[in-house]
């Protein structure tokens, strides 16, 4: 049995490779390998792919960088956005050349990220269908998990699944007309990073689920259950990837990495420190500050966390209460002090803020930006991106059949008029000025 796995390119207004790897997809690859499949793998977002050598941009010191990109025509509903729309990642002509060299597979799996990136997914499926006629294509990932009907009706895939591994196994059973069962728990499988010819970083999820349910966040719709991989197993994975694949930069993409800290992150970091691994750790997802105490702050520093990014989202107390119970202003203030006391400098502590939440006024966001800067940290301002099925999606009174292109955080402000779009531009400028003035 042979499977081809493809992670498609992306269409967006902006995109940067910030430790972006399809972790769940690589676990599915591991599952297929355990089931006896031979694998071919193309990650169209792999900046280090040998076929992209001539098109590669420079890495930053931690192995991240800009994707190769080309300006393309905007879809009609995005015409008013005064920015270039681009395809990021491998150009289709290189992809076509690569798949021509591949032995015809028995199944093809296509992964997907953000709902509003579906255009790249559709194109990849279309090309694969033409090259491998009659080979069943299975689509999974975040996009069909959140917009199942859209994916089923328009993607062109033969099978679409919502992220549940049992559903995926049922699809395999239908295709091969035989039973597939896995000896190990899927959650314990290790992403099959060996499929990459070269790597500059490894991204890991050491847990799934989150104890909070913020009104703007859709992760609970994908990962309902809280589960943490035993810390010694995580440690072994890190050592293995470091030694075998020569990787020094590791990013954690957990939703709640610090939850249950005494039994998970703290013992893991103690092992890392004790074994003097001397690695760099990154947290592109905001950490939950509420779990950081003095001991954990020190462990983060000693273990090699480069920058601590904290999810704050707003400093408005009413908004905090209405959207989440994950943080409040006294806690964030206390945690920033703890981090500074153990040696993180101001430019290595970052706060994520959201703008454009339903009902949030321009003035409220401006206040949040100013008071977040006054806390003495760098601020990353993120535009709110509506996620179907969340409380804020309902609060925003968005129709269920809204084209997922509108979910794009670069685009959504325009949904409420071009005036809004310009106001948001000003807020970003203000935040940028405050960041560089320190
Ligand atoms: S804490 Fe983060 S991952 Fe958890 S629900 Fe809130 S936004 Fe989502």
Please provide a brief summary of the model:
The chain has helices at 23-34, 92-100, 118-131, 142-146, 148-154, 165-176, 219-222, 231-245, 265-274, 294-303, 317-323, 329-341, 362-374, 391-395, 412-415, 418-436, and strands at 2-7, 10-12, 16-17, 38-43, 65-66, 69-72, 85-88, 107-110, 137-139, 159-160, 202-204, 207-208, 227-228, 249-252, 280-282, 308-313, 349-355, 378-383.
Description of the molecule:
This protein has 438 residues and is of the alpha/beta class. It has two domains: 2-176, Cobalamin-binding domain (Rossmann fold, 3-Layer(aba) Sandwich); 201-436, TIM Barrel, CATH 3.20.20. The protein contains 16 helices and 18 strands. It has helices at 23-34, 92-100, 118-131, 142-146, 148-154, 165-176, 219-222, 231-245, 265-274, 294-303, 317-323, 329-341, 362-374, 391-395, 412-415, 418-436, and strands at 2-7, 10-12, 16-17, 38-43, 65-66, 69-72, 85-88, 107-110, 137-139, 159-160, 202-204, 207-208, 227-228, 249-252, 280-282, 308-313, 349-355, 378-383. The strands form six sheets. The protein has a five-stranded parallel beta sheet with strand order 4-1-8-9-10, sandwiched between helices. Strand 17, helix 13 (362-374) and strand 18 (378-383) form a beta-alpha-beta unit. The longest helix is centred in the last third of the chain and has 19 residues, at 418-436. The protein is globular. The N and C termini lie far apart (58 Å). The mean pLDDT is 94. Bound molecules: iron/sulfur cluster. Iron/sulfur cluster (SF4) binds next to loops.
């Amino acid at each position: 049995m042979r499977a081809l796995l493809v992670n498609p390119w992306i269409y967006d207004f902006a995109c940067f490779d910030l430790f972006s790897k399809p972790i769940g997809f690589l676990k599915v690859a591991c599952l297929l390998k355990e089931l006896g499949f031979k694998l071919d793998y193309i990650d169209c977002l792999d900046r280090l792919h040998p076929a992209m050598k001539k098109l590669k941009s420079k890495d930053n010191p931690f192995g991240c960088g800009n994707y190769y990109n080309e300006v393309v025509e905007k879809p009609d509903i995005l015409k008013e956005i005064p920015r270039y729309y681009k395809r990021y990642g491998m150009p289709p002509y290189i992809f076509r050349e690569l798949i021509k060299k591949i032995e015809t597979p028995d199944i093809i799996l296509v992964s997907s990220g953000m709902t509003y990136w579906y255009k790249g997914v559709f194109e990849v499926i279309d090309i694969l269908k033409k090259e491998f006629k009659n080979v069943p294509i299975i689509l999974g990932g975040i996009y069909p998990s959140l917009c199942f009907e859209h994916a089923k009706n328009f993607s062109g895939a033969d099978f679409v699944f919502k992220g549940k591994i049992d559903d995926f196994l049922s699809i395999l059973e239908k295709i091969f007309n035989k039973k597939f069962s896995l000896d190990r728990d899927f959650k314990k499988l290790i992403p099959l990073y060996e499929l990459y010819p070269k790597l500059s970083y490894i991204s890991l999820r050491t847990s799934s689920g989150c104890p909070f349910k913020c009104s703007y966040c859709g992760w609970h719709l994908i990962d309902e259950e809280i589960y943490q991989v035993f810390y010694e197993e995580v440690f072994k994975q890190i050592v293995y990837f470091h030694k075998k694949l020569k990787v020094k930069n590791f990013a954690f993409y957990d939703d709640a990495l610090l939850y249950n800290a005494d039994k998970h992150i703290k013992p893991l970091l103690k092992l890392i420190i004790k074994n003097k691994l001397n690695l760099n750790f990154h947290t592109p997802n905001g950490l939950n500050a509420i779990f950081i105490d003095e001991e954990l702050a020190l462990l983060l520093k000693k273990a090699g966390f480069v920058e601590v990014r904290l999810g704050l989202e707003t400093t408005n107390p009413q908004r905090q209460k209405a959207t989440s119970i994950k943080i409040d202003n006294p806690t964030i203030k206390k945690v920033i002090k703890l981090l500074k006391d153990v040696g993180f400098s101001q430019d290595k502590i970052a706060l994520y803020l959201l703008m454009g939440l339903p009902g949030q006024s321009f003035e409220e966001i401006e206040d949040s930006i100013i008071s977040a800067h006054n806390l003495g940290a760098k601020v990353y301002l993120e535009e709110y991106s509506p996620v179907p099925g969340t409380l804020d999606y309902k609060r925003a009174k968005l129709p269920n059949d809204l084209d997922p292109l509108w979910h794009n955080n670069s685009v959504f402000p325009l949904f409420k008029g071009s005036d809004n779009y310009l106001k948001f531009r000003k807020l970003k400028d203000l935040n940028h000025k405050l960041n560089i003035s320190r």
